[in-house]
Each structure stands twice: as C-alpha cells, then as structure tokens.
Amino acid sequence: MTAVMMFDDRERADVYRWTMSALLVTALHGLVVIGWTLWPEPPQPLGAHLPPAIIELSLVSVSPQETELDLAPGPVMQESDSATTAAKPAAAEEAFAPVLPPMDSDLVLPAAQPKAEKAPVTEKEPVKSEAEKEAPQTRKPVEKKKTHTDRTPAPKTTASRRAEQRAHQAASSRVGAQAMANALPSYRERLAAHLQRYKRYPPELRAAGVRGVARLTFTVNRSGHVLSSRLTGSSGNSSLDAETLAMIRRAQPLPSFPPEITVSSMSFTIPVGFVIR
C-alpha cells in the first residue's frame, strides 16, 4: 500500500514538472517574438528609398491684342458719302410722289385741232453792185490760239496724307503682330527649359511627402532681366512658396527676346508644382 502511494506521488511530480516546463518554454518563445516585433529599426538616411521629385512647370502668356485704327475719311470716302446723301432725297421724292387717280374710260377727250401751217416766206437776196462784184474778197486767216494746259498733279491734302500714313502704320503693325505671335511658342519653350534647370525641391519636404502648386507671375524685359515677380497663388506651404520665389531669382538672366518680339517687356504666369511621382 505504501509503495502504491509513493508511485502516485512520483507520477504527480513528473506531470507537474513537465507541465511547468512546457509553460516556461511557451512563455520564452512569446517573449522572443514580442521583443523581435518591438525592436526599433536602425534609422535610415534622410531621403533614402524615395522616388525622384518631379516639378511640373508650364508657361501661360497672352499674346498682344491687335487694335483697329480709326482712320480719317479720305477723298474717296467723302465722295461716296456725298453720293449717298444726294441719292437719299431723290429716293424720298420717288417714294412720296403723288399718285393720280385712274381716268374714267367713258370720258372722251376732244380731238386736237390741227394748226394752220404758215406759208414759207422767201427772202429776197440783196442785189450787189458791180464794184462789189469786181472787188476780190480777201479773208485773213484766223490764227489758232495755242493753249498750254498744265497737267501737274494736284497736291495731296493733309487729310489724305494722314490717312495714308495711318494705313501704312496699321499694315506694318499687323505684320509685326503676326510675326510676334509665331515666335512666342518657341520662346516659351526656351523659358520653361531654363527655369527647369534652376528649380529645387527641399529634401526635408520631399521626405515628408509635402506637395503643392504655387502660381508665379513675373515681368521680364528684352535682355532677360526680371523687372518684378510675385506669387499670385499659394501652394499651401510657406517653404514651397519661398522656394518658388528663390527659383526665379536664381534663374536670372532669363533668355532674351528674339528679334520678332518687338515689345520692351512681357509678363508671364507659371504654375510651379512640387509633386513626387
């Protein structure tokens, strides 16, 4: 009986020992897994494993508008105006001419009496004397008067000269405006490529994923110097706005105007986008 009781105590001790060992091993594995999960990763350098930044840049400009010149009326225009004013009263007279009532068909007009024809009167020729018949009739030749006509052209009036000058100026301005419109696209491409080389994306903002689009308006003269620049639209971040203004300062001088662009200065508005793709 005593032996049986001792065997039961040993069996209980073994079961208890194995159970505690299993629990201890399980707890240790759990601690290892939790420690591996919560262990902090080594810090990576700023900007590592980030895609390259792309700044969207486009230029928008308005070509100069063509203005129509108010020309003074020349001689041809004045003649046409006088002809139209002379034709208006004639048309008015025709429009307001009185309409006579139709004649009654039963009314018989008296026949016109023929006028009495007068007998032709014969004039007697004067009788010439013998002395008059014998004297020869001498006639002096009539000298033709020579008329010299000066066909010098009439001098042009001041109004016609001004009209011709204005017409010439208008034609030359239209040709210059067309040449300028043709040269603007290529100049915008040169300007965009030039600004693209001087843009910067702050690395701390790029790492943080800060994005935005700023709108910049600037005025440039013929030699490429920036006369004025300002932000007409914020990107939503003060650092990106400051970088946009710094870009236009770094990029000076800008490309100069081609000969086809004859104006002294031009204004451009560009959206500068800071986007990571």
Automatic annotation (TrEMBL):
The keyword tRNA-binding does not apply. Residues 115-141 have a biased composition (Basic and acidic residues). GO terms for biological process: protein transport; transmembrane transport. Gene3D superfamilies: 3.30.1150.10. Residues 186-277 form the TonB C-terminal domain. Residues 113-176 are annotated as: Disordered. Keywords: Cell inner membrane, Cell membrane, Membrane, Protein transport, Transmembrane, Transmembrane helix, Transport. SUPFAM superfamilies: TolA/TonB C-terminal domain. It comes from the Bacteria. The chain crosses the membrane at residues 21-39. It is found in: Cell inner membrane. It is a single-pass membrane protein. Belongs to the TonB family. NCBIfam families: tonB_Cterm. This is TonB like protein.
